[in-house]
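hey so i finally got around to running the thing on that chain from the lab meeting. sorry it took forever, my laptop kept dying and i had to restart like 3 times. anyway pasting the input first so we r on the same page abt which one it is
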Amino acid sequence: MAEESGRRRASSEVPAGTTAVGSGVSSNTSFSSDEGGKPTATGRWGIGISPWLWASRIRILVVIDGRITKGFGVEEFGLGPVLATLVDPWFAWWVRFAWTVRKRDPPESFRFTQAGLNLNDFDQVWFFGDWPGRDANPLNVGDEIIQLEKYFPLDNDELRILASWMERGGGVFATGDHAMLGASMCSRIPRVRKMRKWTRGQGVPSFDGPDRHETLVHDPQSTENDWEGDRWAQQVFPVYGHDPEAVGPSFEHNFPHPLLCGRTGVIERFPDHMHEGCVIEDEDVRLMDPLGIPGYDKEEFPVDSSGSRPRPHVVAHGFTTNPEAPPRRFGLIGVYDGDPVGIGRVVVDSTWHHWFSMNLAGFPTNAPLIYARMQDYYRNVGLWLSTPGQRASMLFAATWGALVGKQPEAFDKVMGIWGLGRAVLDVIGRTAPQCVVSQMVTGLLRTGGSSGSPGMSPSESGHVTRLRPPISMLNQAVVGGIALELVDLAHHHINERARGQPTALDADAIRRKGFDGVMAGVRTLTATLRESSGQLTTLCDHLEHTMERRELGKLPVSCEPLDDLPA
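ok and heres what got predicted. didnt touch it at all, straight out
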């Protein structure tokens, strides 16, 4: 029987691939995601509970091995806090995560080839690999141990199944630790194998040598040995302006990657550890190496419709704190966006110690803001790895929930697209910051092809265009368009309920009106930009004409020394 949590079957009354929002469950341990006392929908979401709320459902298969568990222990390689975070029903009304954990070690001995497993039952696979474990620590141990049967490596048949599923849009997260920890499970997975260092041949950081990636942060008030489970966190350095979801490079985007956008601010602190792994920098990723999976001949990094080959990117760095060596920058988080080529996305992390109960132990009580933002990071991984269809469903669910969770007078067509967009985004912002909304919006608009260099908008002269509309303008137009199409249907439900008449969601109507709203929002934005373009041309003409008439050099400008200052 599959271990699943926080999952309900979708009924015929909600759009396909979604689930009705119920009460759910949360952890009863010290890692509980309940933020003190019994939460309320209005307090947490900015809307009230409505019988017509629905959510996009994301099903995650979590594959573990070695010492990794589902526990909460302060001395445990436990994923309990992460799993509890994912199924916390009070995170948002518009998404529901469901997880199933499988372990490759006996007695379970999970395999992707086992009878009864259909990988299409899952949207994402998250790999937390430990083997070959401590055996990989000595420097004289080579890569040859990775594929030993006693470490349960993925075999060729499993890799073919996984590669085909990723090609169909399945999202993958993978992480290990220093040396070759996690290599038996992860070092041959397409794209994962090239985005993170798994082997000696790739130059993995060592367990205890001077090249190790120690990130321990010292208690400034203590000289005692530091514990990686204390409240002192390492600083993370997000890569700003990196916008792989952009619809072209013409919108201003000053956020970090959506993985590092928290509800209360940028996620800039992670649990520390004495020897992390490493994510490979953008320019060092080898795109053309043979994949080496017998019977599978697809390109590992395909070319998009414009002829470009999208490549992975590091979206956050860390710095080492080794006391015997100067600080060194290293890749902490890497991503591959498969949307432009129609395949699944990938996220890799330098170490699973960013995820374990033993590393998180000091935060819930002593640094709750850091813990809350780590919870945002875990959820963001699941959100970002979702398919374009799931992201569209989440955006429709978020907009619809804002409309039906408020009183009828809160939203009205008279507000227009811009007014509705601004008001609905204000509600959604309680659970989804602007950059998370952006990835939902832009996923609807991308049609394939590369978006160009992040943060760059070349003009004909080759210079960067400095005047660009903010991405929030696109969000407001699209969300406002969706709201404009859905607001009458929302009012119908609210008014009928006030009369004591039951109503049921019409999945086809919501989907149809949602896409009509996207088109309406884009048309409004296009017209606004064209009008603004004309106004800018007029302004430029005015400025040029003004400057031609003024003789700046003849202005009576005088300069007098300050002689009344105190000595």
